[in-house]
Every structure is written in C-alpha cells, then in structure tokens.
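User: Can you help me understand a structure? I only have the sequence.
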Amino acid sequence: RLAAAAAELAALKTIVRDGIARFETARHDEDAINSMAFAVAMNAVKVEASRRAVAIVQEALTIIGIQGYKNDNPFSVGRQLRDILSAPLMIANDRILANTATMLLMSRLDTDLED
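Assistant: Let's start by predicting it. Here is the structure, written out as tokens:
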C-alpha cells in the first residue's frame, strides 16, 4: 500500500507540475491563456489533482490505521483528511466536469499525444 500511495503521489506531483508549466507558457500569450483548450486543461488538472489527493490521504489513513484518527499523536491525518475532502466539494468537480463537457462539445477535442 505504501508503494502504491507513493506512486500516486508522484503522479499527482507530475500533474501539478505539468499544469504549472502549461500556465507559465500560456500566461504570456493572451490567445493561449484565453483559449478553450487551456481552460479544459486547467479544469482537468484541478479535477484530477483533487481526486488523486483524496485517494492518497485515504490510502495513508488505511496504512496508519486507527492511529490516524487520533489528534494527539504524530501519526494523525485527521486534519489532512478533512481538508482534502473539501477539494472536490468547494469548487465542485461535478460542476467543473459539466462545464468542461460543454466546452468540449463546442470545440474539437485534441487527441494528439504531442504538445
């Protein structure tokens, strides 16, 4: 389980880093940053990052066990679990996915594996 959680964390870091790199490239190009493709990509980063982050913290709790619920020990992940569960809720992933679906219906889906 620890190896799987570490792999998920590495994948999450890659998603976030790629999103940051895409933003850094687009922020100097008004057409790029205002494009539907950019909005779809950033929406995908938010949704996937929040989904993976929840899974990672839940896996950490599974690894730690009941000690993870106790607030008075160094193994507690109760606060992290509470905080991360808000990620898909505060800016609702379902709403983002619905808006993204609308954008995709109005544009041509990029299926190319190269940038």
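Now, to help you interpret it: The radius of gyration is 17 Å. Residues 36-64 form the longest helix (29 residues). Let me know which part you'd like to focus on.
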